[in-house]
Write a structure and sequence with these properties.
alpha+beta; lipopolysaccharide transport protein A fold; 7 helices; 26% strand; 253 residues; eleven-stranded antiparallel beta sheet; disordered N terminus; 35% helix
Length: 253
């Protein structure tokens, strides 16, 4: 009976001894440390990614409009993530670029671009375009999603997601709400360009030539063909040798 009493007292003393040892400076109890580590792990604050480490295609913050209107192709490519040289038809930068069709030489013929689209016109044209999505087929380009065209000191600004800019060479036809303005006026009214970073409207159908009314496209194609014939005739006339002067024309005059 005395032995049983001693064991009872010993078992009651063990927890008190453990608490006393824990309170001693420098004494470690592995079991208690594991328990505390598990509790801290359950309440730890998730690590936040460093500023600027946003995954590509997920940054929807606004961008300074002054920078966008002055940036070049290399800067647009760095901002959007992808770029493509279209030869005489210019260069395009965007978050997503898809080659729909290639020509016989393996060069991009039909191209779709979506998200932070930047387009430089070709053939020495100084025009720069910003939009949410683009469909390019040779010298034709269909741009949609609040597009902005800057050429010199003039800006043509689309005012709706479904506003379409249709280019045929250097010719432009705007379909939908838009306005003609200049960089200073635009900067005063809209210091950043949040819609450009938001991406295309997912409720709109896939972009193609069908976004341009048939009559407008046919009219512009006919005008472009007529102009090409006129330029060809003019070039051939200039290549012909000069004929003999008229009899009444004195030599040296």
């Amino acid at each position: 009976m005395l032995a049983a009493l001693n064991r009872h007292l010993l078992f009651r003393a063990i927890p008190l001894l453990g608490l006393a040892l824990v309170s001693c400076e420098g004494f470690r109890v592995p079991a208690l440390e594991k328990l505390k580590a598990a509790e801290n792990a359950g309440t730890a604050t998730p690590a936040q990614p460093p500023a600027g480490d946003t995954a590509p295609g997920t940054d929807t913050s606004s961008v300074d409009l002054g920078f966008l209107l002055s940036m070049n192709y290399d800067e647009a490519k760095a901002l959007a993530g992808n770029g493509m040289d279209l030869g005489t038809n210019g260069r395009v930068a965007a978050e997503n670029i898809e080659v729909v069709k290639e020509d016989k030489e393996g060069q991009p013929r039909k191209v779709r671009a979506k998200g932070k689209v930047y387009l430089e016109a070709g053939s020495g044209d100084s025009a720069k375009i910003l939009c949410q999505e683009a469909y390019i087929n040779g010298d034709e380009a269909v741009l949609r999603g609040r597009p902005i065209l800057q050429r010199g000191g003039t800006i043509i600004e689309g005012l709706a997601d479904d506003t379409v800019f249709y280019f045929l060479g250097s010719r432009l036809r705007v379909i939908g709400l838009h306005r003609v303005t200049n960089p200073n006026t635009m900067l005063a009214g809209m210091p950043d360009l949040g819609p450009w970073t938001a991406g295309p409207n997912p409720l709109l159908p896939a972009l193609s030539e069908t976004a341009v009314p048939v009559n407008i496209r046919e009219e512009m194609l006919k005008a472009a063909t007529a102009e090409a014939v006129l330029q060809q005739n003019k070039h051939e006339a200039l290549q012909q040798a000069e004929g003999a002067p008229a009899p009444w024309v004195k030599p040296g005059t």
